[in-house]
Amino acid sequence: MRRITKPPPESRDCMAEKRTPQASRAGRPWDLVVVVLATLLAAAMVFVPFFSGSPIQVVFVLPLLVFLPGYAFVSALYVRRAAVREANGEEVIPRLARGLDGPARVVLSVLASVILVSATALAVNFTPFGVRRVPMVVAVTALTLAFAVAAVARRSSVPRRERFTPAVPSAVAGGWSFRGDSTVGTALNVVLAASLFLALATTAYALAAPPSPQGDSFTEFYVLSENESGELVANDYPRDLTVGEPTQLTAAVANHEGQSQEYTVVVLQQRVRTNGSGNDTEVVASEELRRLNASVESGETAYLNHSVTPAASGEDVRLTYLLYRGDAPADPTAEDAYRTLRLYVDVSEGSA
Length: 352
What we know:
By secondary structure, this protein is an alpha+beta fold. Helix content is 39%, strand content 24%. Residues 35-346 form the DUF1616 domain.
C-alpha cells in the first residue's frame, strides 16, 4: 500500500487561494472576443469612405488579412491548452490530449491566414463580384466570425481547466517562448519571430504603398450581356438587332485610379465602311443613342444596366461605347475618349 502524504492545512489553503483567481478566469474566451471585435472594426474601416487608403485603415485591415482568420481557425482546431504541471510535477492534461501554447499557435495562425485568404480570393474570383475590396472583406470577415463561433462552441465542450485561454501577464512577461533553454529552442524562437515579422512587413508594405502614378492607375471598361441563366458574361453578345426594339446590355466600369471618380459613358450607333483590303475603317454616319453616368469609389465596379434601341438599319453597323472621366463633350469621338469599346451588329427593319 502506497503512503499518501497530505499537505498541511495551511499549505492547502494557500494553494486554493492562489488557484482561485486563475480558476475563475480560466476558460473565458476573451481572446476570441477580441478577434470578433477586431474583425468587425476592420470591416467597418473598409466601408467608411473617410478612411479609404489611409494608414489607419491599413493598421486595422492588416490583422484581418494576416492573423485574425488563422487565429480563429487554429482556435477551433486546438481548444485545449498545452500540458500543465502542478507543483509536484504531475501533468494535468495527458500528453496526447494537449493543445498549443505560445509561438506555435501564433505562427500557425499567420500561416493559416495566408492559406485561408488565398483560398477565399480564389473562390471569390469565380463569382460575379470578382476579387475586389468589398467582396473580399465580406468573405474574410464572414469566415473569421464563423471560425470564432466554432472555437467558442468547441472550447465549451471541454473541461474548464483544460481550455486554452491565453494569459496576458504570462504573454507580456515572456510567455510567448518555447519551454526550455536549449539552443534548438532559442533558434526556433528566432526563426519564428523573423518569419512573422517578414510576413507582416511585406503585407503592410503592399497595402500601405501608394499606387504608382504611371501604370498602376487605370480604369477597366467592358460590356457584358446576360446569358440564359441570367448571369452577366463577356461573350454571347446580341448580334442581330431590330430598329425600334430595345436590347439589354451592361457597361461595367472598374475604378483602379486610387480615388473616387466620376464617369460618363456615351453609346453611339455608327455605320462604317471598310476599304478594299479591310485594314481601314471609315465612319460614314454616327448617332448618339444614350449617356450613362456613374460615381465609382476606388477599388469598386459600377454595373450600368441599360437598353440600346437602334435608330437605323444596316449591315455595317457597330455600337461604340466611349468612356470619359468626368463629363463627356457635346460631340464625343473615339479620339477624345478615355476608353473605347466596339460591338459589331446587324440591324434590320423588322416586320411591318
